[in-house]
Structures are given as structure tokens and as C-alpha cells.
Amino acid sequence: MMNDVGKNATSEGYFILLGFSKWPQLEIGLFVVILIFYLMTLIGNLFIILLSCLDTHLHTPMYFFLSNLSVLDLCYTTSSIPQLLFNLQGPDKTISYAGCMIQLYFVLALGSTECVLLVVMSYDRYAAVCKPLHYAVLMHPRFCHLLALSSWVSGFAASALHSSFTFWVPLCGHHQVDNFCEVPALLQLSCIDTHVNELTLMVMSSVFVVVPLLLILTSYGAIARAVLRMQSSTGLQKVFGTCGAHLMVVSLFFIPVMCIYLQPPTENSQDKGKFIALFYTVVTPSLNPLIYTLRNKDVRGAVRRLIGYKSVT
């Protein structure tokens, strides 16, 4: 029966996203949990964006980049979660071929952009801690805008290149995608040798995952050395507060991504990959606002000022 549906899918130009259909008893629960996390992502990231725009005390490079990260997370989750929720809430598990390719492009573009942006954010923390006297010059507003723009352009350009390689791969058989519309899952549907595509994926993953991670670790190595030389306990607490939050975000993003994109796709890794992809697509973007704001005095002060301003007006 499924093979017949698959043949129709091929002729009609759509994919069947199997997703979590192996565990139908989990689908209702997953729908509720994913919806809650998606709403948390929307509310939390919109809160950071609005607060950073409205409060002049937050018009700093750190919060400018954090606002960019929030915009990224909003776009990233919205590019995939609504389709996932649609597939979980009923028997229809399909997505059009064009829809799958568009989703693939934006997931790759926004994920690559986030990798680069996290490097930029680590450089900002490096400049703030290690070069405090030159910070205003190093992180001039015009330069900050250029860094943010470079992150977005590089991510979308790399995705255009890699998506085009995936787009031209001929797909055979049933068009049943065992995971989401991601490159490793789609390559498994190919009827030709995909070693070149897999090599391209590994190279791209190295450029946008391994290299950024090494640069981030280098920045924080320099920050750690500077922190060890500090005498002020207040300064230490502030550094650990901001840098610790960023390191946690880096870990939650890079570790799952490496598990998906830096290993060759195998039958045994498919089910595990579904839940790993679910984590960095659904959970991580919802946690970022909490990580950056829970113990952040700047944000708490901005909220008090905003509430006080509204009460006066």
C-alpha cells in the first residue's frame, strides 16, 4: 500500500514525510510538546528583539548580535515547525516537492548563518574582555552591521550552492523521506552514486561547523586566560555571566548539528537523527532567550525601565 502511495507521490511531485509515523502513539504528545516549545520560541525571541529596540541601554554590539540571533531562531523554526505540526496532527504526511526544496534551502541558509553569527558573537565577547580599552573602536556600529550582514550573506550563498547540488540529484522510488527535508535524508532517495554530494556536504559542514567551532574555542581560550588574570570578583561574575550564556548556546547548537551532518547517513542512525534534529530545531531556539535573560541584569533593568515608562505614560 505504501509503495503505491509512493509511486503516486513521485508522479504528482510531492514527498511523504514519514517523520515519527513509526511511533503513532507518540504523535499527539509530540504535537503538544512541539507546539509549546514553538510558542516559547516566538514569545522569547520577540521579547528580546522588542526589548533591544525599545531600550537605548541595550543599543550595544552584544544585544545587536543577540537580536540578530533571535531573528534567525524565529525564521529557522518557522521554516520547518509549522509543517511538522501539520504532519503530526493528522494522517496527511505530505509536502510538495517545491515546498521541500524551499524548506531545505532556508534550513541550510539559516543554520549556516547561525554558525557564522555565533563566531561573530564570540569575537565581540573577546574584544569586550581582552581589549576593553579598544572595544568601542573594534566594535564600531558600522563594523558590527558589516559583520552581521556578512553572516547572513555567507549563509544564504552557501545554501544556494549546496541546495542546487541536491536539487539536481535524480530521486528514485517512493519519495518517502524518513526524516525531515534535510540533505542527508534526501540523498538516501537518490538512484545514483552520491559520494560527490556526501563529500560536498562534509566539506560544507567543515567550513560552517568545524571551523566556526574552532574559532569560538580559540576566542574563549583567550577570554579564559584574561579572566584568570582578573582581580575583581565583580568583573569575574560579569564575564562568566555573559560568556557562560554564549558558550551554553554554542554547545546546544553545535553538538546536535555535528551529530547530524558530520557522520555518513546509515540505517541505524536514522531514528536517532530524527530526535537529534528535533532537539536543535525545536528545543534549542526556545532555550536561547531563557539562557541569555534569566540572570541578565541588563535585561532585568530594561524590563523595569520599560514597565516604569509605560506606567508613567
Number of helical runs?
Answer: 12
DSSP strand tally: 3
| Helix proportion range | over 70%
Q: Which series of helices and strands comes N to C?
A: HEHHHEHHHEHHHHH
Please report which band the strand proportion falls in: under 5%, 5-15%, 15-25%, 25-35%, 35-45% or over 45%.
under 5%
Q: Which secondary-structure class do the elements indicate?
A: mainly alpha
Strand order of the largest sheet: 2-1-3
Which ranges are low-confidence, i.e. pLDDT below 50, for 5 or more consecutive residues?
Answer: 1-11
Determine the N-to-C terminus distance.
65 Å
Shape type: globular
Instruction: Return Rg in Å.
Output: 21 Å
Largest sheet: 3 strands, mixed
Mean pLDDT: 80
Report on the architecture of this protein.
By secondary structure, this protein is an all-alpha fold. Helix content is 78%, strand content 3%. It has helices at 2-12, 24-54, 61-78, 81-88, 97-130, 135-138, 141-167, 183-187, 195-228, 233-261, 267-293, 297-312; strands at 14-17, 94-96, 176-177. It is globular and about 65 Å long. 37% of the residues are buried.
